[in-house]
Amino acid sequence: MTTIYDVARRSGVSPATVSRVLSGRRNVDPELSEKVRAAVAELRYRPNGVARNLRKASTNLWAVVISDIENPFFTSLVRGLEDVAQTEGYHVVLCNSDEDPAKEAAYASAVLTEQMAGVVISPTSTADGVQVLAEAKTPMVLIDRRVEGVEADSVLVDNEHGATEGVRHLIEGGYRRIACITGPRRVSTAMDRLAGYRAALRGGGIRYDKDLVRHADFREAGGFAAMESLLELGEPPEALFAANNLMTVGALECLAKRGLRAPDDIAVVGFDDIPWADLVVPSLTTVAQPTYELGRTAGLLLKDRIASPGRPPSTVTLRTELHIRSTSAPKP
Amino acid sequence: MTTIYDVARRSGVSPATVSRVLSGRRNVDPELSEKVRAAVAELRYRPNGVARNLRKASTNLWAVVISDIENPFFTSLVRGLEDVAQTEGYHVVLCNSDEDPAKEAAYASAVLTEQMAGVVISPTSTADGVQVLAEAKTPMVLIDRRVEGVEADSVLVDNEHGATEGVRHLIEGGYRRIACITGPRRVSTAMDRLAGYRAALRGGGIRYDKDLVRHADFREAGGFAAMESLLELGEPPEALFAANNLMTVGALECLAKRGLRAPDDIAVVGFDDIPWADLVVPSLTTVAQPTYELGRTAGLLLKDRIASPGRPPSTVTLRTELHIRSTSAPKP
DNA sequence: TACGCTGCGGAAATCGATTTCTGACTACAG
DNA sequence: CTGTAGTCAGAAATCGATTTCCGCAGCGTA
Predict the structure, then answer these.
(1) CATH topology of domain B4-47
(2) Sorted alphabetically, which InterPro entries does this protein's record hold (chains A, B) (predicted)?
């Protein structure tokens, strides 16, 4: 490998001068500067980033810790983050935690030993890794979920409002027996969306019936099972509000398997958009989150946090958007 | 930050001994060893990965250069890669090239300066970055596409065979005027799938008609436009074979917009599975690629390549799988 | 003329770990 | 009792850049 010393020797200057020419952080005699550039080109010199990182005590890596890149919600979010990272000169390290606190903690540990510049993280239920990172004062942005007792920049979505809007839309369509499949009790988004559901019922003068609510695991299989159990009720629901994309898909599969159709047999509104929702027939009504924007905003916050570590933490809340399609058509 | 020197001082040994205790690469007096461990715990010492990387002249980073993580094909592939990386002690840096050779080259350059351990790359049309990396002898695995003149491990899919199977299935359904929307001429997968299409026609005794073939850009808009142009033919096609997922979606959107339905007005087979293809009504017949497996295989090859750099390059070709669903139902 | 200030290049310290080299000590064979 | 091989701890070199510190030269001002 050619080093800065090789370049220095070749161009008859000291390594310090080479460094100064390349970083442009100090004036250098144009003649020497030219010689250095020539030597760099001739030797095809490429600085060693690791050595630079060591000296500078920082890297240009951001970690993004999410539960699963295959979930379209995170896919798009990561893309938004990567676009910011790229323009700001960072690289993104992808970390799939699979909702496993141990994996989250392992990644957090890697963030620290590898001296990464910052982290964007969607916390698992116990947020083990978040605690470690907070303690180490690593620049960190929480996305999607809040964590009790941790002061950090966050990018959230107005889950309660979004859920309310989705459920209100069903009520306005004439549905009154509306079921809800939400996520685990320990996850803030699950509880917020449930709260939104209840608020909408209240607004519509409908009594809350806890038999119509299921807490599943935010996964496809969980949505499927929850739907099955709802259909076994003596008086099955007329409509369903499902609190994330995977559980919505699971519920739809359950309906398909039973030969039931939306909205004729049961109307459906799902939280989270799914790709090509328009192509699904009947097309799915969703409470869409601005996922790309979520990632982009997280990136911008992280950049600011790194630039001014002392700044008090800020929380950005983005709005959801109700995409009315066919599965929520009003009652005939 | 606490360093190995702090630990050494605290436990009354030399830094060398601390290093040996922690790496376990040499026998150390159990008593000293115990002292070191105690000091590590007390000081909450965490080795500095950057310093280690510098000394060892290698990092534990893999780059994965793909065109767009939002394309489900790559999403799943990246997940497969990350799973291998995790078990092998590597981290994955995500690089979206957007099919732009300049971006690809920029990422290749970053791979070199950051001393990443290896790269998994889906080359853009001119493969600028691949050339740079090949020249630098960086451990590299090509995925999805071949590159002329570059000897490297590759993981490919039997594109020609998959395309043949998909088109043959249409022929068996009684369709004879079958159109094909494929990708750019410079991309190997586009040409291989076109070759498969032609082979199937030949096998079915159907004359190849170049008016029924469109070269688009592998994107949604391109598929849409290509479909429009096919529908404007004096005698429009009875069936369509589209050579990737995004163009298939674009074509379907075009059909939807015109009020045409598959398979009644035009039968459709698409290359690449799409998520929840079963939920789309009518459900889409696809030539599915083993995308997760593709990423996993690439990871395993990369691991081997790093372990034994001298080994001659190997190519793994995986099989596609025809998923017969509704859009290709036989002609009545 | 003397003094101070500025601009710029080079020597050397520095970042924090790993690893080579050296020397002390032990054990065992002759 | 001596010589040799083997173990293991510590001193110091090392990875490759950046940056501090120092010294020299040139210029302006009193």
Answers:
(1) 434 Repressor (Amino-terminal Domain) (1.10.260)
(2) Cro/C1-type_HTH (IPR001387), HTH_LacI (IPR000843), LacI/GalR-like_sensor (IPR046335), Lambda_DNA-bd_dom_sf (IPR010982), Peripla_BP_I (IPR028082)
